[in-house]
Structure formats: C-alpha cells, structure tokens
Amino acid sequence: MAKRKLRRASQYFSGIGNNYYQLLQRSFRRSPRLITMFLAISVLMALLGLLIPPGSSQSGGIKQARVTEILDGSQVFIQNQPVKLNAVAGKGQQVRTGKARAELTFNTGAIGRLGQNSALTVGNSCNQLQQGSVLIEGAANGCTKSLVAGVRGTVYVMEVDEAGEESITVCDGEVEIRQADEPNKTWIVKPGERIGIGRDRKLKPIRRLAQQEYDQLLQGQLFRQYRRELRKTKEIRRYYLQLYKGATFPLDRKPVRPPVRPLQRPGTLVPR
Q1: Per-residue CA distances from 207 to 147, 177, 193, 242, 248 (Å)
Q2: Closest C-alpha among 148, 57, 147 to residue 110
Q3: Are residues 99 and 131 in the same domain?
Q4: Which helix (H) or strand (E) holds 219?
Q5: Does residue 272 lie in a domain region?
Q6: Which of 178, 210, 218 has the alpha carbon at shortest distance from 197?
Q7: DSSP letter assigned to residue 212
Q8: Could you tell me which residues are beta bridge partners of residue 67?
C-alpha cells in the first residue's frame, strides 16, 4: 500500500515537471527574446554568487568566539572566569583582558584582536565593545554603546577610552556607521578615516587620520607580534600608500633594537 502511494506521488510530481518543461519550450518558440532574458538573469545570479564572499551574512551567523592566541600575559577572562587557549565564548558572553592581549576567531572565520584592559561581548546583531580596543577583520558587525558598524569583510578598529569617548577607524574596505539612537542616519567611513562620539555624547564628524596617528595605530598593540598576519595586510598597505605619498608602510619597517654593549673583561675599561 505504501509503495503504491509513493509511486503515485512520484508520477504526480514528474508530471508537473514535464508540464513545466513543455510550457517553457512553447514560450521560447513564441518569443526568442525570452531565451535571451532567461540566460541573462542566470548569468547575473551566478556572478552575484561569486561576488558575495563566504560568511557575508556576518554577525547574523556569529554564535561563538574561540581564544586562539594570548600575548603579554595570561589575564584573559570569559564571564570573569580565567581561561586559556581554545576557550570558547558563546553568544552573549563577555571576553575581557587585563594585562594581556587576545586574538579571537569567530565561527564565521572573522577574527578579533582585543587590546589590554578591554572587554567585548559576543553578539548576534553586533559584537559590543564595552572598554578598551578591538580590531576586527572579516564579516562581523561591531558596536559600542553609541555607534554601530555594519560591515562586509573589512578591517576596522573600535576604541572606548576611560573617559567614555568612542571611535571607529577603518583600515580596509568601507564601513557603514549609524548611531544606536538614530538608526535611520548612516555614514560611510573609508580607509584611513575615523568617526567618533565625544565625552559630551555628540557625534564627531568623519575625518582623515594624520599620518602620525595612523602610524601609531599600525605600530600599536592590535597589529604587532601576533603569530598570524592579517589576511588583508596587502590591502591595508595599498590604501596607506595611496593616502600618504612617499611614506613607508609601518608594518614593513624593521623594529629598532638598542645597541648591544660589549662585554667588559675584568681589569679593562670600556670606552664610552
């Protein structure tokens, strides 16, 4: 009995498919333009599929963040509990650092680098920075108390200082920024630009960073000494050199080491 019902259902759906195919054939015979339109739409859909990068659903797909590197110490906490490498923070949980830095890898493949004395809550709609600084590379929306960053595969830095000032700086790609209390107003921030909220809770307009400011950022704790290089380093370099003609990209500069003084043998004087 069950086999007979299954056979009938199969024949029914097969008939629908054949009828649909015959209808397409008749339509194409009557109007050859339909073939051209059908092919054009198919090609366009295929191209759109190639242009949208994996994980572009970004924060909508973020469910957790794994601690994949710890630098400068061991003070990394999830929900105020000390953790080690490979610890996982779930959605709604806070990752906090003391005298340490931490790299987080989200389940979407995006990464976050937390500076010292920073706190970030893993979120579904956004990853919220409560204090300190964080660099995010990849499809992961970020936010502070007042600013929300809508992104797609970019590199940007969020900062909240002790006085409560907030800022978002873009290093690669473009980031759409809106104020949390005015969601209908948006601003597009480009590489080398920064937007912020002052102590008076008023919006600071978008401005381009002076070269010295950008150098300090690129040579700071969110970029140096990490085991993995950012995937977008080449793009960051390209934008930097476009902004500051004739400059040397800070991440290409070799660190300056202090001179090594020769060992002093007993009974000898070292010339000064």
Answers
A1: 16, 14, 5, 16, 22
A2: 57
A3: yes
A4: none
A5: no
A6: 178
A7: H
A8: 104
Contact 151, 125 (CB under 8 A): no
Q: What share of the chain is helix, strand, coil (3-state, %, to 5)?
A: 30, 35, 40
Question: The domain containing residue 152 runs over which residues?
Answer: 58-252
Residue 258 in tokens: 């202090």
232 or 26, which is more confident: 232
Hey, what are 93's tokens? 């949980």
Q: Give the rounded percent of residues in the chain with a pLDDT score beyond 90.
A: 64
In whole angstroms, how far apart are CA 16 and each of 4, 19, 20? 19, 5, 6
Residue 108 lies in a domain: yes
pLDDT over 70, % of the chain: 71
Q: Which residues contact 38 (CB under 8 A, 6 or more apart)?
A: none
Residue 180 lies in a domain: yes
Q: Is the pLDDT of residue 106 over 90?
A: yes
Q: What is the pLDDT of residue 85?
A: 97
Can you give 30-92 as a three-state secondary structure string? Answer: HCHHHHHHHHHHHHHHHHHHHHCCCCCCHHHHCCEEEEEEEECCCCEEECCEECCCCCEEECC
Q: Tell me the per-residue pLDDT of 9-59, one tens digit each, with 9 for 90 and over.
A: 555 545 544 554 565 466 556 665 655 565 555 545 544 444 433 334 444
Same domain, 132 and 22: no
Please indicate, yes or no, if residue 82 is contained in any of the structural domains: yes
Q: At what angle do helices 32-51 and 2-30 cross, to 10 degrees?
A: 110
